[in-house]
Every structure is written in C-alpha cells, then in structure tokens.
Amino acid sequence: MQKQLTILFLAFTSIFFSSCDALLQNIQKSQQAQTAANQAAGKAPKRAYTLTLPPNKDRILPDGYAQGDIMVTNPNPWGIRYKEYIYTDFDVRTEYYKKGAPMWDGSKKDIIMDIVTPRNDAEKKRPCLIFLFGGGFAGKFDDCTQEVCKGMVQKGYVVVAADYRVGFKNALLAGQCVGDFNTGMYPAYVRAIQDTRSLIRYLKANAERLGIDPNLIFISGQSAGALATIGTALMDNNNAPKEVMSQVGGSLDPMNDNMQYDTKVAGVISMAGAVIDPNLVLGKKISTPMNFIHGTCDELLDMYSGSPFRCADRKTFPIVYGGAAIYEASRTQNNPVYLNMICNGSHSMSVIGYNKLIDLISDFTYSVIQGKPITGKQIVPAEKGVCNKPELCK
To answer: What is the mean pLDDT of residues 365-390?
Structure first.
C-alpha cells in the first residue's frame, strides 16, 4: 500500500510540475512578446535602444531589460585604441554560427550572433570580444549587453553578442528551488559551453573575412553567460562530468563543426559568474588570463560560495563558487587571475555604472593585448550600492 501511495504521489508531482512548467513557458512567451511590443512602441528602458539589431526570426527574444539610460561616451579619434573611446558610429550585422543544434526538448535550433564593428575602421586584424547574456539558462535577460557592445566597439574591438541554447525541464521553476540540477540546469550549462566552443571556432575560421585577430578573441558574459564563459575556458572532454555529457551528445563538440580550429582564447571576463566544479580550479595551473567582476552583496550567486538563488535544496542547486573564490583558489598557483570586487554591489552590473564597467573590461583586455595581464585584486565602489557591508570589501 505504501509503495502504491508513493508511486501515485510521484506521478501526481510529475504532472503538477509539468503543468506548472508549461504554464510558466506560456507566461515567458507572453512576457517576451510584451517586451518586444514595448520596445517597438518606444516604451522600453532607454538603454534598450542603444543597438539597432537586424530583424531575425531565430534571435532569442529578451525576457526584459535592466532599467537605465543610454550610456554616454565621448569618443576621441586620437585616443589610445582598445583602451579609450575613439569611434562614434558602429554597424551591426547578424550571422548564423551553428545550425540544427539539438534542444533539450528534442527540437533543433539555428543559432545566431550579432556582430558589432566600428564604422569606417581601416584596421583589419582587430581583437574580438564575445559577450554572452544572462538569464539562468532559462531565458535571455539584457543586463549590460547594450553597453558592452557599444563601449567596446567604440574602443576599436569587434564585439559579438551571441545567442546560445537556453531551456531545460522545469527551467522556469528553478528560481523557486524546484527541479533536478543534474538533469536540468547542468546539461543546459554544458550546452551553452558547446555553443561557445562552436562560436570560437567559427570566428577563427572566418577571422580574415570578419577582420579579427584569431589570437585575440576574448570571451565574456554576465550571470549564466559568465558561467558558460568560465566553463569554456576550464572544461574539456577529459574533465567534463560524464553523467551530464551522456545527456548532451557525449562530447563538448558533438557536431564536429570547424574542428580544424581550437577553442583557446586570449582572456576571460566573468561578470557575476561562478564555477560549478571546484576541481576545475583547485590546485590547477591556468594559463588563460581571467578577470572576475563580482559584487560583495550578490543576491543570486555569492562571490565566494553558496547555492544559486539561495536555495536550500541541494538537489536543485549544489554549492557553486564565485569570482572571489576562484581568485583565492587560483592565486596560490600564480595564475593570471584578476578580481574586481564591487563593494556593496549586487548581481546586476548596473550598480557599478556602465562606463566604469566598460573601463574594467577594457583595462583588462588592453593589458592582455600588451602582453602584461593585470593580476591581483581591486576594490571598486558600487555607484549604486545595494547594501552597506564594508566588512565584505576586503
């Protein structure tokens, strides 16, 4: 009798959560449609109008935009290229970098990227910055995409704002601490890494046409995008979790696209990111320069360690390790790691001030370009702090 009751309970729970997830997916689609309608009607936050993106049916629609005005820059054409703002105008075009990628629900996805380039730039071998959006691997939220693209392209970089596969079973319930991490978000995280690897190889294969230096490709991202960025730099087929890999094609490169090129990058910029497996950094020698930008009062991903969304259920989320923890673990090995600790900062990069954020990114990339990567730790005061805990800013 007890066994039968257990089976009935599990069946009911499965139906209940499946129904909830389906309902939330419909709500998400409605929210995306409303966000798009608001933007078309001029009712979105002003910063949402920084970039004019070419229409594309395969672009993932944003669930929303962080509030704020368009970032103001004052380009100086005689400034230091890759460090200061020198270009006023820029162009955006869209390309597919991966087609027919398998989704979590059995469907296929063609994946795009928006390429932002300085207008009338005579240079043909430029550093490239990839940026990956956040959204918990469940959707797409624009926290700082507009500013990263505008700011870095005005400093002379080619910037690639890339889509990657999102979604997993009960994805929209994860923030409520519901779901199985090992069959839900973990595979979604690895799919994002697979896509980032494909993107890097695509850019290297098309470097001459795109006017980029294949040896100076940087990867960056915020929140979930930062996790994918860190994972791309640290994970390979030898240290990837086997039980998860079996769910995503058995390899980090299951589609074997542009395999004549490697996935090495010049540097990593993580904004409110974390690493899931501490063994990827503990006692390991890391050759890729890494820059972690993390708020001391991050409410979703602790800069040291904790469960995402502060979930107590370890089945939903294990303990993950943020930018400060990775920095502390890495510096014992003399690794080229840099930590920008945002004093009283939150999960959102808006608390720094977008101009300051772009400077933190370009100071790092410029140091790598010059062959002298910045290392160590810097305390950066938040422009709009979300707490008052100076004891954490050490």
So the answer is: 95
